[in-house]
Each structure stands twice: as C-alpha cells, then as structure tokens.
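W.,

You were right to be curious about this one. When I first looked at the sequence I had no strong expectations either way, so I just let the prediction run and decided to look at it fresh. Below is the sequence, 136 residues in total, followed by the output.
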Amino acid sequence: MVLAAPGAAVPTPTCIVRLLATRGDDILTIVRDDGQGLDIPSARVGDSPVEEALAALVLSALGAPQPATLLGYVKNVVTEPADDYPWPVPDAHFAVWHIRAERSLSGRWLPAHAARRELGERHWWPLAAHVLGIAC
C-alpha cells in the first residue's frame, strides 16, 4: 500500500529510506545492487535513527547535507511471513523523501518520460509521479 503523507510523522518501523532527488523534470537514479535495473538511492535504516540513515543517504548521493521532505511511504502488511522475509511483522514501512538538487556524486539523471518507462513498476513510483506531475 502506498500512502502519500507530506509533512506527516515518520512511520514506525521504517526499514528503508529512499531519496527522490529531482533536478527540474529529471530524477536521480542508480543501478540496483541486485541487477534488477534502475532505482532511486536508498539505504537500510537498521538500528540507527531514521533521521541518521536519511542524512547519510543524502550525503552519499548528493555530497552535502540538505533538508528533505517526507513524501510518503510504502507499507507492507504481512501477518504470516515466509521464513526468509527480512522485515518486521505485521507492518514494515519504506519511506520516500524528496529533495530538489542540482548535482549528485554518482548515478544518472533520468528525464521524467524515461523515468516512467524505467521505474513505473517500482512500488514507490506513485509518489514520484505526483512530484513530477505525470500520470502513474
């Protein structure tokens, strides 16, 4: 379930922080570690406070601290997980923050039309589409 929540409190537990960095109509993308195409920068929260994980992600993606706005999150609700399910149960949240940026340390800036084609199946895409002003 994808929930838009601009300005809301960070949901608990938040397992992953994601960064939607935009430059005009372009978004910053990276190649996924698992080889499954492109994605937006993300980081596991682990035992750190969410704010620390987000600050580290912003610094690694953009090279300098910048304020970010919570767009919303994806909420997984799993009552009977498989043995290899890595997230808390029954609820796990994957939050997406937005920053307008001019540069990045790595990755590729992808125009909105190409981003929809490349990233439109990602669970967080409706949040990005809203920021970019395009249809899901």
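Here's what jumped out at me. The helical segments are 50-62, 112-119, 125-132. And, maybe more interesting for your project: The CA atoms of residues 41 and 124 lie 12 Å apart.

Coffee later to discuss?

I.
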